[in-house]
Amino acid sequence: xxxxVVFTAFLYVILTIARAPSIWGIGNRPDxxxxxxxxxxxxxxxxxxxxEWPLLFYVACLILLFREPESITLFLAWVFIxxxxxxxxxxxLTTNVRLRGIxxxxxxxxxxxxxxxxxxxxxxxx
Length: 126
Prior knowledge:
The protein has five helices and no strands. With 126 residues, it is mainly α. The radius of gyration is 18 Å and the shape is elongated.
């Protein structure tokens, strides 16, 4: 969870940098345009994505904090985090929706896996 929070903070930093020419006039091109104009909306959309499906990741992790971690849950959590990095890279730097969808599916399944482990072991939750 901490890794995702740090990553989300990093996205805020790059969004601020991408918006600097438009907002503060810092880093404009000689003609006054923003060199980041094409990428800024993708960064913004990606940042919004960090508060959608990851919410269910956080809830699962918080529940799992009260249990002895299983290697499968740690593996699934790291798959999710690695997938978020990859998904963000694809969304921000490309327009390849098909590839982004494949990576999102991996993230989606990792969180469903965490919830499946929780459901299967719900009798162990006090």
